[in-house]
Specification:
Pfam families: IF-2B (PF01008), NUDIX (PF00293). With 443 residues, this protein is of the alpha/beta class. It has helices spanning 50-62, 134-139, 145-150, 156-176, 178-181, 185-202, 207-221, 230-256, 270-278, 294-304, 320-326, 351-361, 427-436, and strands spanning 10-19, 22-28, 39-40, 42-45, 70-75, 79-83, 88-99, 110-116, 260-266, 280-287, 312-315, 331-334, 338-339, 345-348, 365-368, 404-407, 414-417, 420-422. 36% of the residues lie in helices and 22% in strands. Strands 1, 2, 3, 4, 5, 6, 7 and 8 form an 8-stranded mixed sheet that branches.
Length: 443
């Protein structure tokens, strides 16, 4: 951010780069004219279009390019405030970006950077002094119950992390408010429990979101002093995010060891994508996965990956049986939105067709997922997509556009998890463990 003076409100941009539940915070150096030594996001004067300017600032301050390793998650309403010490009014345009890497190149405007939970901005005992209204700017773009409910682009594992971020952020606010309003563990618990239940209802079909929230709340309720207040929820949510990310990583690592030869897959599973990149496939076939065609995006990522040196082929969903019958495919590898207690798998529509075709051709099927994706419920709500994605004409037609289908357990050869390879009969043990977390109390 370059220094300038003006009588009118000064428009600036602030971008938060997010990676694995943490955001990039940077300490402003002596090269800048305001807020030297304080911590903020990527920022700069909005000399024209703020949407274009934030991309310029990211490139100049981190060496990263938007649409390469960085993608826009959300933009928020501007934050307007006056700094009396400077005699200046600011209008901050906040942005949140998802970032695939933590490797950045600092410009002269900053001298230190760290990837941290955004909640450190609120911590009074933290020695990193934030620039004014940094938390307000973050709140304008942070995940919410509404954003999780409306998200149709990301998978269940990703949305489970977003849900834990929502709970973590609110617990941090409640913890910080103790300085002003005093300590009230029961009241804090009631507020955070109500938020957790809203998050549970945001995507009721996603078992992984439910299990990870329940684990956090159960852990907070059992904290050492028995209070179960905001600090306990904050600590449990932070630990829950770390545990969830590690489980997904470990499931991918386990799967990568089993990927050798030609592989077929569909839709988007970040865990499967990582397993393919870490494994040793000789060829990858990807069904396009309509209507969002996320399979095409996956194929493009694999084809561009420096750590994957094999042909990548994309094909229509309707061609999966044909591809398996004509091509030398050694294994089908898919993710899971939910694993039912009986071992059946709920996943993107087309998974059932792919696995049935694999069974016909004698091709083994591996489902790659953390055990948190096991559902404790027999019944699963299958979400449907927009009817216009199938038919937008005027004829009086009924339209079906299921976005998930159910693959029977007998079409699946193995479940590849962070605990190793499981068979369908071993799912019962996971179910019993996860059910124990559902009993966290109302206070």
């Amino acid at each position: 951010m370059h220094d300038e003076t003006a009588d009118e409100p000064t428009p600036v941009v602030t971008g938060f780069l997010r990676n694995r539940g943490e955001v990039l915070l940077l300490r402003r150096s002596d090269a800048v004219g305001t807020y030297t030594g304080q911590w903020g996001g990527v920022s700069g004067f909005a000399e024209g279009d703020p949407d274009a300017q934030i991309r310029t600032e990211i490139r100049e301050e981190t060496g990263l390019e938007v649409d390469d390793n960085v993608s826009l998650a959300r933009s928020g309403r501007p934050v307007r405030f006056e700094d009396a010490d400077l005699g200046r009014e600011w209008v901050v345009h906040p942005y949140l970006f998802d970032c695939e890497t933590r490797d950045i190149e600092l410009s002269a405007e900053h001298d230190v950077f760290e990837w941290l939970s955004p909640t450190v901005i609120l911590e009074a005992d933290d020695d990193r002094e934030p620039v004014p209204e940094l938390w307000t700017a973050y709140e304008r773009v942070a995940p919410t119950v509404r954003s999780i409910t409306a998200d149709s682009e990301h998978g269940a594992a990703s949305l489970s992390i977003r849900a834990l971020e929502v709970l973590r952020d609110r617990a941090a606010i409640a913890t910080a408010e103790r300085a002003e309003f005093g300590t009230n563990p029961d009241g804090e618990w009631d507020e955070l429990a109500a938020l957790a239940r809203q998050l549970l209802e945001a995507r009721p079909s996603m078992a992984v979101l439910r299990n990870r929230l329940n684990r956090v709340m159960a852990g907070a309720a059992d904290d050492s002093d028995g209070a179960g207040g905001a600090p306990a929820v904050l600590e449990a949510a932070r630990a829950g995010i770390e545990r969830a990310l590690a489980a997904d990583d470990d499931a991918a690592a386990t799967a990568s060891e089993r990927i050798d030869g030609s592989v077929a897959t569909l839709s988007r599973s970040d865990t499967v994508l990582e397993a393919l990149r870490e494994g040793n496939p000789s060829r990858v076939f990807v069904a396009e996965s309509r209507p969002a065609r996320e399979g095409v995006a996956v194929a493009e990522e694999l084809a561009a990956a420096d750590d994957l040196d094999c042909p990548v082929t994309v094909h229509t969903d309707a061609a999966v049986a044909h591809v398996l019958s004509r091509e030398a495919v050694d294994r089908v590898v898919v993710g899971a939105d939910t694993i039912r207690p009986d071992g059946a798998v709920v996943n993107k529509t087309g998974t059932r067709t792919l696995t049935l075709a694999a069974a016909r051709e004698g091709i083994p099927v591996s489902v790659v997922a953390a055990t948190d994706k096991v559902s404790t419920r027999e019944a699963v709500n299958l979400e449907s997509g927009d009817r216009s994605a199938v038919y937008d004409g005027d004829a009086p037609l009924d339209v079906l556009n299921p976005t998930f289908d159910v693959t029977p357990a007998d079409c699946i050869d193995e479940f590849v998890t962070e605990r190793g390879v499981l068979e369908a009969a071993e799912i019962d043990n996971v179910v019993a463990e996860l059910r124990a977390f559902e009993e966290w109390p109302d206070r």
